[in-house]
Design goal:
Blueprint (H helix, E strand, L loop, with lengths): L42 H11 L24
Length: about 80
Amino acid sequence: MEAIKLKTHIGSDGLLRLEMPTSVADVDAEVLVVYNVQRKRTQAEWEAFIDETYGSLADDPLERPEELPLDVRDEIE
């Protein structure tokens, strides 16, 4: 079994046209399509998300560790 991940667009007609490069030709294949639709959030949805999650780390704040020293590299000639 081989997995191929790609991004595509579903047209205004609601049809997904799928073209995938494969390493085989002229064979029967069983294909499984799993899709995830990323829709844009409205302004109201973003505001509701912020209101819901604001302060969620107040009891366990993130801490930034000290910076590591910079690598010293040879100059390019």
